[in-house]
């Protein structure tokens, strides 16, 4: 299932040249985006980039200054929030403190004047889906943070919206619970066959849960792609930096040929031979972005070649359990980072501070970036 690869596929949610201004401040700038039915889609970006504003325009809490928001092909302008088949999950502190879990979940259904038996059935279904059955009679203050979050989720799903909007849904949870809840949300989305749109500044959260991610910066979308594409083939320095850890090597293009492109590093004496495609021409300054786990590290003074290999001195090491991070200096000021798995070795390492090492990588390990 990859409708975004099919040019004739009809989007479920569409932002068409949407601009949102607050006074003379432009929060969203002429942005277009297509999201497909049953997608788990993430809007990812730093504080103030406009992601919440996007979500609020879809929910109907904000009106675009220009452009249209469409759902199932229908222009939503003029449709009030309560008439949109979209629901927003609010943080758990928006629960009614004096009501039990089941009453919290039933609240919106009662307001909609649903029949008693139907409400009971729906609440039971929601309790089951969110694994809250044992806590149905409790009040929010008698629950853990994670359980409260699930009540908020159950409440927002109770009316069976077609689209669920999640704004930083897991922000209040600790790391372990956040990871667990991420998987639960994915299972739930799968089971309910709904479209989920999550807004987050947490790249791990977006990478874990989303089918596709839109990376936003200053009211614009920089890149839309699947998590592996965004990680392996970022289209800009901004995206490469935002997602995960990266070595950004400034370099000059020496030549391009059918075999790939050859770059001279700007600050040290090594050459990068890469199969990464680029429009850059000989003489251009570019950046070579390579993830630390793609940089190998072995003890040694001199490398047999300076192509895709650099001599360095270990500057610091961080032991993280699953991996160790080595920062190795290639000159007075520049550091290349190599992340080495600890899967096969334990704390005792043959390479330590001040050791001379050779860093090396494969031709297809990184990407050339021109912006
Ligand atoms: P965060 O993660 O910090 O919530 P965000 O990407 O969700 O950031 P938005 O809430 O969409 O950001 O806000 C985008 C920009 O628009 C911010 O600079 C914000 O100050 C501004 N903004 C949002 N709502 C209003 C408003 N009602 N009036 C004026 N400016 C606003």
Automatic annotation (TrEMBL):
NCBIfam families referenced in this protein's UniProt entry, alphabetically: potA
**Catalytic activity, as annotated:** ATP + H2O + polyamine-[polyamine-binding protein]Side 1 = ADP + phosphate + polyamineSide 2 + [polyamine-binding protein]Side 1
The name of this protein is: Spermidine/putrescine import ATP-binding protein PotA
Write out the function statement from the record: Part of the ABC transporter complex PotABCD involved in spermidine/putrescine import. Responsible for energy coupling to the transport system.
Q: How does it assemble?
A: The complex is composed of two ATP-binding proteins (PotA), two transmembrane proteins (PotB and PotC) and a solute-binding protein (PotD).
- List the Gene Ontology MF annotations in alphabetical order: ABC-type putrescine transporter activity; ATP binding; ATP hydrolysis activity
Q: Which GO terms describe its cellular component?
A: ATP-binding cassette (ABC) transporter complex
CDD domains, sorted: ABC_PotA_N
Q: Which SMART domains match?
A: AAA
Identify the Pfam families for this entry: ABC_tran, TOBE_2
Q: What organism is listed for this UniProt entry? A: Roseibium aquae
Alphabetical list of SUPFAM superfamilies matching this protein: MOP-like, P-loop containing nucleoside triphosphate hydrolases
Q: Could you tell me the EC number(s) of this protein?
A: 7.6.2.11
The taxonomy runs: Bacteria, Pseudomonadati, Pseudomonadota, Alphaproteobacteria, Hyphomicrobiales
Tell me the protein family, please: Belongs to the ABC transporter superfamily. Spermidine/putrescine importer (TC 3.A.1.11.1) family.
Q: Where is the ABC transporter domain?
A: 13-243
* Keywords tagged on the record: ATP-binding, Cell inner membrane, Cell membrane, Membrane, Nucleotide-binding, Translocase, Transport
């Amino acid at each position: 299932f990859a409708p975004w690869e099919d040019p004739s596929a009809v989007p479920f949610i569409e932002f068409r040249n949407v601009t949102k201004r607050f006074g003379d401040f432009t929060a969203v700038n002429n942005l277009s985006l297509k999201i497909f039915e049953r997608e788990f889609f993430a809007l990812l970006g730093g504080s103030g980039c406009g992601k919440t504003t996007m979500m609020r325009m879809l929910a109907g809490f904000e009106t675009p200054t220009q452009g249209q928001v469409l759902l199932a092909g229908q222009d939503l302008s003029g449709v009030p929030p309560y008439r949109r088949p979209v629901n927003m999950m609010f943080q758990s502190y928006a629960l009614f403190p004096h009501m039990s879990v089941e009453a919290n979940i039933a609240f919106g259904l009662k307001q909609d004047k649903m029949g008693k038996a139907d409400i009971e059935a729906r609440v039971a279904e929601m309790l089951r889906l969110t694994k809250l059955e044992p806590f149905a009679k409790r009040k929010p203050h008698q629950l853990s943070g994670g359980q409260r979050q699930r009540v908020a989720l159950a409440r927002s799903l109770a009316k069976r919206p077609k689209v669920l909007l999640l704004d930083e849904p897991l922000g209040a949870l600790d790391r372990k619970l956040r990871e667990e809840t991420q998987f639960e949300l994915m299972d739930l989305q799968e089971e309910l066959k709904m479209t989920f749109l999550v807004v987050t500044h947490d790249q791990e959260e977006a990478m874990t849960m989303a089918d596709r991610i839109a990376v936003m910066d200053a009211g614009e979308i920089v890149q839309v792609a699947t998590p592996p594409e965004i990680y392996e083939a970022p289209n800009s320095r901004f995206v490469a930096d935002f997602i995960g850890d990266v070595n950004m090597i400034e370099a000059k293009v020496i030549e391009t040929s059918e075999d790939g492109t050859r770059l001279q590093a700007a600050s040290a004496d090594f050459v990068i031979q890469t199969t990464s495609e680029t429009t850059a021409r000989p003489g251009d300054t570019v950046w070579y972005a390579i993830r630390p786990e793609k940089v190998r590290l072995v003890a040694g003074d001199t490398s047999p070649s300076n192509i895709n290999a650099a001599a360095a001195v270990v500057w610091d090491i961080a032991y993280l359990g699953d991996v160790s991070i080595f920062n190795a200096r290639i000159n007075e000021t520049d550091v290349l980072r190599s992340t080495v798995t600890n899967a096969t070795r334990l704390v005792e390492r043959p390479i330590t501070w001040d050791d001379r090492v050779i860093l090396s990588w494969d031709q297809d390990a990184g990407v050339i970036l021109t912006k």
